[in-house]
Amino acid sequence: MKKTRFFTAAAALLLTPALAVPAAAAEPALASPGAPFRIFPEKAPETVTLPTGDELKVPPLFWLRTCTQGPTGTVRTLDGDTQRVMLTASHCVNTISGLPPIKNEFSVPVDGTYPRIGERTASNDLKPSAIDLSDPMESIRTADWGIMRIDDNVSATNISNSRDYNGGSAGEPVALSGIKDYRTLQPGEVSADNFGQPICKDGSTTGRSCATQIGRTRNGVWSWGLNYQQGDSGGVNFDPRDNSIIGVTSMTLGPLGKAQPADRILEDAYGIPDGQVNEHFTLPDSSAPRAEFGITADEEKQMNQQLDELNPGFEPPVPRDELRKAVDSAQQDAAGLAQKASRGEFNPAEIDRAVSHHSEKIGYWGGAVLGEEIGKRLS
């Protein structure tokens, strides 16, 4: 269990009414809002070096990134062209700083295989400080959208549903009804015109959950207590009163959640005028059942088995013990530097190096402890 929790944390850091099934049989949909999709690197590194200095052999699954499918539909551009697309988050379809470059193709887990469903055609650029939340104001201000073109041979559905990390389900399938087309706000403008309204989301880590909207900005619909977690990103958010699409899961700051508005994605990506989004975006004319997608827990179990096989006898460090060691080491260095300063041996460069080194160590192992605690709640 310790190995599983540690490797899960390490991988993460390196991170309505029921609808009747139609009588005619339909091909299971691989493009399905709320279902998982996967991001693979162009070339998966074969090893990873831990902060302890240990080098581990790692399988390709170690570098697998997990997101959730957003709403699908057909866009009619201002030039009259049409494209079948999925709306998602930018950080789901672009390389993240510090991780291997990703392939521009996206897959879904089905029966132990990963069939392709599409490729990125457009997205906005996110600064690393917006992704890792080191600059919360940048995270709040910035847009977070991507457009995935769905392959011609991939079946799509307008039905949203999800299973959580362990495969549990907490809601009935929902037939999405269209895009909620808000008045576009100016940069820096805040509106409470959605305050108190309900919002639900489907995610491949936490499944279906619902909460309350508290306000919106130009590139964010904000809610409280929707319980976004890693792996839910990109998933559809909708209004349960009419099943209209609000946006896609973007980020979380504790109980505060941000969805990237779906109307703003289409306005930015295609230049569609404010108020005309639903004239240019049509949901799939299909209520096909979704495919039997795999779940994250099974993939992580497989990944940990492969790690054990590649590194026989290796005992991973215990995050809490390593965090304690890192704090003790920082305190010892601080005491030593204070003594030097009292003797007039003040060296700013040495202090900067020590602060940087210990901050990195404490931050890593503190994050690993947090990841371990999340793993306990998910297991």
TrEMBL record:
<protein>
    <submittedName>
        <fullName>Uncharacterized protein</fullName>
    </submittedName>
</protein>
<keyword id="KW-0732">Signal</keyword>
<feature type="signal peptide">
    <location>
        <begin position="1"/>
        <end position="25"/>
    </location>
</feature>
<dbReference type="InterPro" id="IPR009003">
    <property type="entry name" value="Peptidase_S1_PA"/>
</dbReference>
